[in-house]
Amino acid sequence: MLCDDVKRVVYFFIDGSLGEQKRHDVDEHLKLCPRCEVLVRIQRRIRRFVQSRIARMTDTAPDRLRRRLVRSIRAFNTEWSQP
Question: Mean per-residue pLDDT for 31-54?
């Protein structure tokens, strides 16, 4: 796996939605690449920050936006979860 590959899947890696093989590939890459390891740490911090802010919000996203986001996430997840 290359650094560009890790950058493309970092969010799915962090939330645990990558397939087993891809997750393993990212783990192995992170052991050898300090730059990507730092990237993952930073993205985890950002994710925690955003989640904490979202949890405070009482309004929800419009249905149309949620549907578009779900479709996009599923399509990307399907692509990267396959062996």
Answer: 89
